[in-house]
Amino acid sequence: MGYVLAVSFFVAVADRIQANAIASATVKLLAAGWLLYSAVRLWGTPFLTTAKSVRQLFVRVLLTTLVNPKAMLVGTVLIPSGADIQASVWVAAYAAMSTLAGLGWVFFGGCLPLGVRRHSYKLASVILGGFSMAAAASAISGQ
Predict the structure, then answer these.
(1) How far apart are CA 10 and CA 117, in angstroms?
(2) Which residues form the domain of 53?
């Protein structure tokens, strides 16, 4: 759901964002900030084998997905500009592929031994930090 909302937003405003360097940099810096915040929080989160509140997890994942720089890239670069009616087909295809990829990662993570899964938060934190740096570098360089 987060990708559908985010990609749809970026498809709708792609021309305006790409034409305005300040808007583009601002969106990238906001995404970088949220990803960095998420990475720091995730690093300090103890690994628990019991689930947290489903609502808390849903909101956290939804917010992180909404500001994922990948959605901006898909909405402004990969989906053709001016696609109008076809844009919904492009967004639906991306949502389906993202859902399948996400389910694959969940399945893969569930198959890992508990000893390996204990380190998954730290690894995910490092990856989020890397995406945050990439988004910040892109905003600063103007690309």
Answers:
(1) 34
(2) 2-141
SS3 string, 13-71, reads: HHHHHHHCHHHHHHHHHHHHHHHHHHHHHHHCCCCCCCCCCHHHHHHHHHHHHHCCHHH
| Cβ pair 81, 15 in contact under 8 A | yes
Phi, psi of 45 (to 5 degrees): -80, 125
Task: Say how many domains are in the chain.
Answer: 1
**Alpha carbon distance 63, 101 (integer Å):** 19
Write out pLDDT tens, residues 27-66: 778 878 888 988 898 898 887 666 667 787 788 788 878 8
Contacts of 44 (CB under 8 A, 6+ apart): none
User: Quick one: DSSP state of residue 112?
Assistant: S
Distance CA 128, CA 122 (A): 10
Cα(2)–Cα(94) distance, integer angstroms: 12
